[in-house]
Design goal:
This protein is of the alpha+beta class. The protein has 4 helices and 5 strands.
């Protein structure tokens, strides 16, 4: 009997716990909730084996059944959670201002001017307008806000 076989035999149900902890540790190194479910299945089989005498064949089949069932259940559960939830404009600050109306700080001359929004001065692009005019943001082009004169 090889060293590994003897070690598994002597550890008995605790070998499933060790395997489970190793698999959960792998989840930390390679996240994606894949190894997690195999680790949980190994710990469950190890816990059951502490109370019920199981042959290694039954233990292995039980491990595979629990691991596959938990993996499928997690995929079905996480399918309902949308990854696109959250703030779609998180890394595109200018897109948050589309549709809003602001007052120009500087006139738009030759298609470009400046506007002060919150704590930032933005470059704006649009038809020529005088300073103090109301403009509505219609789009963004990189860090430039595209504006049009606002009614009223």
């Amino acid at each position: 009997m090889s060293l590994i076989e003897r070690l598994i035999f002597e550890l008995g149900p605790w070998s499933w716990w060790i395997l489970g902890l190793i698999l959960i540790g792998l989840e930390i190194l390679a996240p994606g909730t894949f190894f997690l479910w195999f680790g949980v299945a190994a710990i469950l089989v190890g816990t059951l084996a502490l109370f019920v005498e199981l042959s290694w064949q039954v233990s292995l089949l039980l491990f595979l059944a629990v691991a596959i069932a938990s993996l499928v259940a997690s995929r079905l559960f996480f399918r309902g959670i949308r990854a696109d939830e959250g703030d779609p404009g998180l890394n595109r600050r200018g897109s948050r201002y589309v549709g809003r109306t602001f007052v120009l700080d500087e006139p738009i001359i030759d298609g470009y001017g400046r506007i002060h929004i919150d704590d930032t001065i933005w470059r704006v692009k649009g038809p020529d307008c005088g300073g103090g005019s109301k403009v509505r943001v219609t789009n963004t082009e990189g860090t430039v806000l595209v504006v049009e004169p606002a009614d009223g």
